[in-house]
Amino acid sequence: MNLSYFIARRYFLSKKKTNFINIISIISMIGVGVGTMALVIVLSVFNGLEDLFRSLHGTFDSEINIKPAYGKSFTVTPQLLAKIRAVEGVGFIAEIIEDNVFLSYRKGHMPARMRGVPDQFIRQNGLDQAIIAGNARLKYNDKSYAIVGSGVQYILSIALKDEMNPIQIWYPDNSRKTINVSSPESIRKSSIRAGGVFALEQRYDKDYIFVPLSFAADLLQMGNKRNSLEISLKDGEDVDQIKAQIKKVLGANYLVQDRDEQHASLLQAIRIEKLFVYITFSVILAVASFNIFFSLTMLAIDKRKDVAVLSAMGAAPHFIRRVFMTEGAIIATVGTLAGLGSGFLICLAQQMFGIFKMGMESAIVDAYPVKMQLPDFVATGITIALITFVASYFPAVKAAKDIDIRL
């Protein structure tokens, strides 16, 4: 066994002459443990929120999205679709028409975001799992139906079984060179009945309405133009590899993005916030490490006679310095392990039982999501090690310096 570790361990376990030193040592371990536990839990919550964000958009967005690099729309031809389908791993291709519209139902009015999609889109993207009322279908018996967000339904008070009052969708007539909003002739109108209601996430629920692709193309006068193409991949395919191949096939006139790239700004905001939380808790741990500094300083004073005996037996100053730095490392290690263990158990309990609620009614998740990742535990351990080294260094140097003075 390493002699410096043996002595440091004896100092850690033995009762000090001054009981106050024991109290400070315990406070040091508790401070490090609580700080470590809090850091692990908070980082895991941010991981869970990031995963929740991805899962929500994973239902709404396809794995790969193709948009024009310039402008709002582009012409979709059979040749273009054939090029994309030729890429190995490409599954379902959904043509999308999307734009802002104005909705009217009975006495209610509101702006909304209309999305025209193929009939298979609802089930292909898993949106049918978010249907809370009505049916997950856009057409039935040659009739077109809309699927509206729960927020849209609430604002307009839409009744799904209302056969007498369809939803009126208004959109500017693009065939006119000038549009006068006060003139009825400048606005195109189409009627459609609501067939279902979805609840996914507030951002979508209060704004979106899904309609058949043909209905949207007719209302918006799009012809064979589309705002985007959404691609679902076959099972087990690599998104990055297929995305790169599609970019190569289509060229620079198209913007090809995966799910993360479609919402890069929001994901980046989550990661930046996670980084700042990590820095903030690291500073708190650094402040808590002052207890280690005081504990070792008082221990060095308490063990002056022991240090003198070791010096008389030939112990060099660097050996004494190593003893006290090891003592600080033991205090920090015990606190860190306790904190990591406690953080792991709390996160595990939250995953299994959802103990801590978000304090709001939600159709998506009622408890804080958590996801533990090994890099977070490793980063926390390294941070504690660096802070402990700095906190232990100066008391250890002082204890070794006392030997030099006596010598």
From TrEMBL:
Gene Ontology biological-process annotations: lipoprotein localization to outer membrane
Top-rank taxon, per record: Bacteria
Membrane-traversing stretches: 20-46, 275-301, 329-353, 377-397
Membrane topology: Multi-pass membrane protein
One annotated Gene Ontology cellular component of this protein: plasma membrane protein complex
The protein's name: ABC transporter permease
Main location: membrane
Similarity comment: Belongs to the ABC-4 integral membrane protein family. LolC/E subfamily.
Keywords: Cell membrane, Membrane, Transmembrane, Transmembrane helix
Domain MacB-like periplasmic core: 25-248
Subcellular location: Cell membrane
The ABC3 transporter permease C-terminal domain, residue ranges: 280-401
UniProt key word Cell membrane: yes
Organism encoding this protein: Xanthocytophaga agilis
